[in-house]
Design a protein that fits this description.
FAD/NAD(P)-binding domain; alpha/beta; five-stranded parallel sheet; seven-stranded mixed sheet; 9 helices
Amino acid sequence: MTDVYDITIIGAGPIGLFAAFYAGMRGAKTKIIDSLPQIGGQLATLYPEKLIYDAPGFATIKAIELIENLDQQLEKFNHDFVLEEEVVDLIAHEDFVEIVTNQGLHFSKSVILALGNGSFQPRRLNLPLADDLENHGLDYYVNDLQKYAGQRVAIAGGGDSAIDWALMLEPIAAEVHLIHRRPEFRGHEHSVNLLEKSSINILTPYVIESLQAQEGELTAIDLQKVKADDVLQVPIDHLIVNYGFSSSLEHLKNWGLETQRNSILVNSDMSTNIPGVYAAGDITQYQGKVKLIATGLGEAPTAVNNALHYINPKNRTQPMHSTSLFAEK
């Protein structure tokens, strides 16, 4: 058996990141596991430009900025991150929990589930060459905006996320095309207004008919106009497909967790029915639960404190104030 951590947090969204920060404040040896290739969960992946109104201390803050702030908080701690691994099972033993992922095993004295709305995967293109061109010009995630600097970029999708990425890439890329199969976009009115005033080339109503490549790299896309014979070829360097994501929480019951309406039932200390396993954020359910980011941020320290008390009853469930924890000695 490899290293056993004090706390393993499953989910690197805002609640998981804040739980990791608080675990660091308590001196816990901590690991964070997420199925996505980047931290931030749905906020960073799907809605980076979305304005958040329920984050304490901010009148409004963009989703991506909230994630960046949480990441900055974590810099003072040497936590271990494991990305692009999906948890498929939890097995509780007497002194530890075995975490089974699609790539291996992890061991922890306690676990905090910060799953949000569940692990999710992008809806991929069902076209010849699509699988081969993934990460060779065809992307489903945006990990680094500078990757597209000076490049010809096309974005496929009609929701907030696609519009957000197009607007963010406009000042960076050489040219940006936004492709949608309907004449109207589903985004917020403010974002759509910004889109219409931008230099982004809006291609509607079109669908991607085929992909073109040379030497294993994407070079162009062929577009078919909906309900018409028009075909348009667009030379590009990158295609970002944003057709949404599919998520599932059905596996929670298979783990032995007590659930209700795709949520995990927890007690006031955020414990689940499995000893050593706690939960926080939108994934949880209890009487009077309000599903807000602010609520989850409050649940995270409660889960951490009680998880540490579980693995060592001498650990205080009500530690010193944060100003005392970080006071210079």
